[in-house]
Queue: 4 jobs
Job 1
Amino acid sequence: MHRFFVNKISDNQAIIQGEDYSHIVTVLRLKINEEIAVFNYEHGEFLAKITDINTKEKIILLQIIKKIKDREKTNIKVIAIISLIKNDKMDFVIEKLTELGITQIIPVITKRTVVKINDIEKKLKRWEKIIYSAVKQCGRVTKPEIFSVVNSFKELLKIVPENSFKLLIWEKEDKRYLIDEIFNLKDVESICFFIGPEGGFEQSEVQELLKNGFLSVSLGDTTLRAETAVILTAGVIMQKVRRSKWKN
């Protein structure tokens, strides 16, 4: 069933407009009385029926039929800290992190970051659009919060919760592995992981992060691309979070 976001649900009614209006009318060619799923980040997901298509104002009116599912609830916040990687790969990573259920995404500039963004606001709008499309596709009712690009570790450490279990994914770590640290972990409120750029972290950056409570872990013996490391790390952590019975 087709899924669409609605800003507000009131008196068992909702409205769709903008790009989704065009998609429903010109691409899907849905008609009055046809049913779709609509979701709202606060209230959950609902089955709805199209009651009117106003072509003049480009608005679709909906009647809510019943609730399909509640807003997802998780006791553990999962934060992905990602050094900026090349544009198409960054878009891909944001899409996959959304599908996996990550809570927050923090893009960061590190010393070896080669990507430069001239228009931050334009880039954030693009990322929000990617997140929305991924939310619609994967069935989430919530969306990850994406931060503006962080330019320093000092700024980053102010954002990351102090009590978070902080992981530094580092290719030179040879004693601790992500899988062991995550599956032996208990009673935390948030987990964050930091993935560096294509060229890796500089030693001074690693030392600064370790000094501020990050634990360095390995993903294995092979050298992974940044986007592969992000997806692998997020997948392992989210598997643990979803199967966990931790409580706040």
Note: The mean pLDDT is 92.
Job 2
Amino acid sequence: MKDLVEKINSIRNDRTHGAGELSRRALEILREAAQENRSPTTASFLEEMEFICRELIAARPSMVIIASSVGRFRCRLMEYAGRERNIEALRSFAVRAAAGIMEEISSAKVQAVAAAAGLLADGTRMVTCSYSSTILQVLEQAAREKRFPVTVLESRFGAYSYGEITACRLQEKGINCRVIPDDRAREAVAEADLILVGADAVLADGSLVNGYPTLELATAAAERHPRVPFYAVCESLKFHPGGAIILEEGFQLIPSRMIKGIICEEGIIDPGRVAEYSTGPAAT
């Protein structure tokens, strides 16, 4: 149990990885817990898995994909338990369910990345901020065939400069970029053709939750004439079907009116249509 608590706390305290990466870690925790579980009865097994699910969902409230993926696991497990009471069969199913959801997330991310990469052409002046493994993949895929300048806002919050982390990862992939201070967001937008950011959550009204300074970047883009296109890229499991969401420190809410489109595995969708694609935390 101590090891399990430490793993969940590692997600709760992680400030250098994105929501998608942490959701995968949450599913890995569930898979390992199912593999190692030695509960003598189905009831005790389900009780222990339910406890882990609740703790994981509560760990990072701003990262909807954790709640959605864990909720999907819980829903599938309970549905299967309604048909199968054999404890060994249930453990085996739980392991497969966690692995299957990881594959679903990976597939959705691949499709979203491909759609976003298609927006970049040779010479497109692109700006981003914060840290997103999805945006890193978009730029890596686009850079295989195209050459374009990338500007990253420093995205400094607390002890971390997420823009520097992003730039370091891009340089590891051979993609050149420049990092500029956050207070020069308007300057970056004035020279930009396109803005792409990741997402920690997309609310039902199309508004976006993402790390600082996404709001400042979106505001600068919206105030330009003509506007600089501002897109968020993510899997639809990050769509939050409910109302309000808890904003963790360092996260911001960006109004849907500032966003041109949400790019997910379904393609580019209008922010006003997000509710049509929301799967919800307990989706099957």
Note: The domain at 112-277 is CATH 3.40.50.10470 (Rossmann fold).
Job 3
Amino acid sequence: MEIILVIARNKELVKNISSIKLQNYNVVILNNIKFIKHYLEEYIPEFIILSEEFENRKEIADYMNGNTQGELFIIGSGDKRNTISRNIYLGGVKNTGDLERVLRIIDNLDSGDNISIKNNYKIIPQQVISFYSIQGGVGKTSIVFNFAWYVKKIIEGRVLIIDLNFCEGPSDLTINLDLSLLPNLSVFIEKIASGENCLNNSIINLDDDNKIDILQPPLSIHQSDRFNIDMLDSIIYSARNKYDIIIADIPFRYDNISLEMLNLSTTSILVLSPDMKLVPRINDFKKFLPAEQKKGIIFNKVSQSNKKYIDECKNISGIPVYDRISHIPEENIEKIANGRVSFNILNLQSLIPDLVNSIF
């Protein structure tokens, strides 16, 4: 059978883990990190569980990522039961019973069994999610930012927003967040030869807890025209080594950049108004989406007059409807705030969870 390697110093775990019997895996325990190379070579584990109690866990994780194909989980005793990707984090593991639940999640990942156990943990793999539309004025950028703002609160990792709405002057997102105009994608275009630091020098951090970065578009069409799909590929490659969730805001434009971004995405979300006359356009656009890609639709600004019909709509052209966001009357409008700073972005946080659950 395949091997799950558990690396921990906790005496209770080391003593009792041998009593845990799984259907699909054998469990091997290692409590002395000096023997990690030997264990990786001998057992070639499919999954590795590393306790966060090791002070040098980052170096250990980097070593294992570079020397094994196994999926790495990091476990800790914190209350959060969310995740970071690349190295998946599971909190709430305080004793042998908690670890056994984690092991049984892994044991049944492909079987569909023990759903109640799986639901105790939210495992969110790294995602590249593109939001696009086939019409203007649907509130796509507001949904993108609300999605990012919500996700950053439920994961331990970092989020990157890539704003591909090229225009002359600052984009809507830049204006509504009152961002500094620099740095932006122009830095990447000018200094792409410098490698990874090129992306680092092109992004702007948004929030106090350093969890959301934004890659703004250039300030001129002339500079935007210099951006090509090879540069986009390079950005996504670099970003996947740094960020857990990458979110792209794609304009209503069928150009090579937009189509390549959709092609690079693990998930694509179509943002629609309740106007069902656009269904033929969806049929025409669907051919550009990778067949194996996860796809969903979100209706925005759904009024009472069309709510019943939209609620009954489960899919369009075979793409499932993930969420329906109601129109918010002007007197009920609130803006997203970051501490004392208020962004000029409609607050949809209470309406986003269904979309998040559908994607993850």
Note: The chain has two domains: 2-118, 127-359.
Job 4
Amino acid sequence: MNIWMDQLKVLQIENMLTIASVVISAIALIVSIAVAWSNRKTLNVNISKDLTVVEAGTAFFADNNSEPASYDDALLLTMEVVNPSPKDIAFFDLRAFNPTTNINVNFLTRRSTALQHRTLPLWMAVDPDNEKDPKLTELNIPDANHGIFKANSFTRFSILIFPGESSEKLGFSFKVAMHAKFRKDPFAITSRKRFKFHGVIYDISSWKQSLPQSKPSEQKST
């Protein structure tokens, strides 16, 4: 009888050890999944659905010690990126383009400006016709067409684009250092097609018509 009791105790101990081993393995798996989930690369990207028409002369570089350096008629979009992950994420191939021809369209970065303007703030007149109480807002343009979205950060870029007068469509996109599993950039002009991208296509067929028309000069009677 004692032999059977001893064997039963041994079996109970073995079962407890087996259960403990399974529980420990399950906990380790849950912890590893949680760590992998918290360390995953992810971005929340918001690109403005509408463009703002910027009249010539209302966007300019200036500070208290320099004359304003203004730009021609342009279109303005904003992009906001939240990187909630604990890792920096690189972006590259930031571009504006004509989606019909896939030819690049000029847009403003710090690197593309004249050397003497690169450290100056870029301003835009919010109400350019109000000479008595002019209001300005500062535009945060990117340094270049590539850069870093810092870990646990929020980034807002103002993209000032100079399309042709006859342009009817405008594309804007950029890629990030995350491999795309399925969707590829259909407008990619480099070999970097397998990276995740964000982009939008705008209808700008009437953008020039929305600019203020020049006022006729006042004629004095004689």
Note: The mean pLDDT is 81.
